[in-house]
Amino acid sequence: MSEQTSAPTAPPNTTHRGIWGVIADWGMHAWIVGYSVVMLSAFVVQFGLGEFPCPLCMLQRYGMFLSTLGALFVVMQARAGTLTPARYAQGLGMGIVGALAGASVSWRQINLHIKPGDPGYGEPILGLHMYTWALITFVIVLVYCGAMLMLMPKSIPVAPPAGSRLHLASTIIVWVFIGLIAANVVAIFVLEGFAWVLPDDPTGYHLFDQLRG
Length: 213
Description:
The protein has about 210 residues and is mainly α.
């Protein structure tokens, strides 16, 4: 009897997908960088301008983090060489769920200040309040995820080679985002203190007030 052998199959992440795989990978990185910039801007507004985030603002931050965890999942799977179409779809699905959750909160906050003459919450940036900008970013994420799902499988990201400058840049982007998650956890605790939720219109850091008695 003759033995039949088949050619080895390349791992999903190393299958040649040309420029599409590279574009998709850096699209995921751009997603992470985009929301990292948003979080840093929120810190500037909070600590630099003294505008404290309300509960709805914090929920929108949660939505941003949840959606970006989907992008982070895809990036880490691609870097490990274990990214499959199913895992890619899972990451995009996480992004969609997070964006939908955040968009619903942004829409709620917009409606709270939709009456004529209402100045809104906080100072506008480039003519729009931060919660309106948040809704715009969530819509962009939803459109991007939908487009990437339609372009599968050629849109499956391919990570840069280990040891390259692009791989180092990817590592820096990932750790900056993880650091921002940790910083937000600390900021939320300082804002709320030992309470379950923030007040509707916070005016200070409750943890310090509670420690002072």
